[in-house]
Amino acid sequence: MPKRNQIIQTPISTATSHSDEESMTEDVEKPFQPNSELSSSSIFRWCFSIKFCLSFLIAVFILFGVVIISAVWLGTLIPPNVVLSQDVRRADFNGIISKISRTLQEVELSTEAMKSQMNPLLDFNDFEKFELALYSAYKYDFQKTQGLVKTSHFGDNKGNGIGMTMIPSMGPILFNFTPAQAVVYFCNPDFDKYDHCKRNAAPDMVSSSGSTADFMNRCNAYPNLSSWFQSFVMETSVNFDTFVNFVTCFKLDVPDAKGNKFRQFFYKSLTVVSFSEYLHNMTMTISGSKSFIVELGTDYLLAIDKPDVKMTIKNTNGKVERKTAITVEDEKTNSVAKYIYTYLNNNLSSLTCNTHVTIESSTDYISMYRLCTASELNWLFVLSIPKWNYDKSIIIGVLVAIGCACIITVFGLTFSTVISLKIVKPFYNLMEQFEAVSNMDLNSVKVHSSKFYEVNQLQKHFLDMIGMIKQYRAFIPAHLLSQIEQHNSGAKYETTSTKQAAESKDELASRGQASHAAESSSTSDMNKSSLKRLSSKLSNVAKRNGSNMFSLFFEKKKITHMLIHMQGFSQILTQVENPTSCIEFLSQVFEQVNTVCRVSGGLIGGFSNDSLTISFNSSSDNAKHIEKAVQAGKSISEKLASKLKGTDTKKGQNSKLSNSQTSFRIAICSQDSICGNVGTNESKSFTIISNASRNLEAMIAVACHFDTGILVSETVHQTIQSLYHTRFVESIPNIPDDEYSSLEWTSSLAGNSSSLPWHFGDISSHKSSNIYEVGELSAHNADEWMYEMQEQEKKAIWKKYNMACKYMLTDHDLSQALSLLQEFSDEQHGTDKLALHHIEKCKQRIQ
């Protein structure tokens, strides 16, 4: 067996310290430092992400475009719409005013025309001739004004008068006034059939004469003036109809003896019912509008757009009462009138004549026009239209614009989000892959191909880099890979679930469960770990270990060492023609060892000749490292044995290798050692300074000679004896933990021989230590009685052997020990070399 140094080293790694390089030169570029705000705050990370910036920029452009377009069309639409609304309101209002004022003007003109026509015929003594002319003129006037003119009357300054009126239920009526009486004739109701009053010769009614004093007084006061009288109510009518009179006078050149300044007068009476009907027809075409006419001076209503609303009623006292715009029984009219009276300080006459005035209430546009004429007509026209009629187009347009803007904005935001996610997705994928690479988790790297050319090229170069890193990864120090893989697998994951998983795994190790169960549990933990937590886990490792992972340091700690010896490997090398043929065999061995060490936290050391070293609790803290080392040894032994059997079915060189007498011997010891990074800042390696290699070699020599399984030192045995079936093997010299020199051991090896196949010199300072072989697990599941019976049988295999060792070592009863050893050897058909050795030893001591 080749000699080993007492210093066990991992493969050399090269690392560069930024701090040292900066101290040597000032020209070295300062290393990148991530923004602490972006790293610590999720809000900062989100706000300063490419995804957010892209979405924000696209959304801003869309919103800016929507605002500009909306401002343009609103700026071009609203002013013309407002002007158009005003024009439409004024046109509607002017239609009402012009219609009624034109009708009144026509009445005035027709009155003047009749005055001129009838002037030569004004002879009250020639009644028949005057009657015929009056009937023809009245018929024409009545038909032309569509019944608006109800009465036409001629009178003189003596109290005489002739006139006609129309009563709907009776037809045209002719009356003749004298100061003494009034004679009434009923004309034929068929007004259109006759051109004269078809009546009886005798009067149909004779009554007292009516008073014409108001007209006479007006003509005496203003003989040259044609004017309108204030409205009055015909109390004898069924509906208390309201009338207005227009009077014109025949002036005398010289006042007569009684002082009269006129000779005759002529007046017409008009009903305002037709005005209400006209207002009704006009407002019917304007939704929600309200219109009425007020007579200034009396403030009485002359017309309203609701003909069924009573403007004159008989009160409880039996008197006729006329209504104003405030007192009429119509809420809309009342509200509009109150607003107007408030606006004009209860003085309607303060409004300028013949001028349009528009005011706004909270709900309506109110248009007012005071009609003033030379004929003393003084009426107030009012038209109220809801603002909604004109503003609805603007409001609907604005709402539609807002709705469309919202739709465009939502679509834009959705589109921008989708686009940004589409663009950023491969970058996030690369970020995750870079994070995996930074944690050396190269097996989980999976790049999703992007359709963007630049990203595709970046992914291509990234994959090329991964390929190179995978090649370099094989030369990274094993302890670093071990730590990274341990933390990647979630062994030290600081969450409740992973702590429970770790505790469960430790419990399995302490109870000595099957190694494959521990491996599957650890593999499950490793699969549950997320790439997104790798950086934080590694940073936690750095905080726990300080800067020891990458700095030069030494520390003394208890380390469990394992030596795996490939017995027969030298024969393999001599059998093959090309040593390269052994590569596949060794790769299979290392594959199994790596798998187990990744789970148990073992650090694979160097491979020398035919032996491989593994240490536990060296590069990183490993709880229950002794139990894990033994468990790992059992698992490695089983896997390698299974692998050798599997290769028997293969052909060619592999079959040749497997058919050779190759077996694996494992020795485990635990002792104080010194470990750490040595070298320089530019080139350093992890080193374990210990004499464990010499102790392990001695144990391996015993294992090879007696063809045993896993051998452990006495220290290890004390820890695991309750977990595994064990048996005493032999006592061999043990180098103390605090002796690290290999010269003393080498020089002390002499040619002294004994009954053992190995040779130990006279090393008085090295006391002997017992070594033990590890068998099956002693723990079992009580619920599975079949396994319990099998385990009890396994335990009974070494029962006699262990009792014999007890008699031999403790009780010094060699005879009893020899008897039990012979029984045990017979049960094993003489194949147990260790039992045969102790039988021979007992016989020698008995003699």
From TrEMBL:
Bilayer-spanning residue ranges: 52-74, 394-421
Polar residues: bias regions: 1-17, 492-501, 518-527
InterPro entries: Nucleotide_cyclase (IPR029787)
Keywords per UniProt: Membrane, Transmembrane, Transmembrane helix
Transmembrane helix among keywords: yes
Transmembrane helix found in the keyword field: yes
Region (Disordered): 1-37, 492-530
Protein's recorded name: Guanylate cyclase domain-containing protein
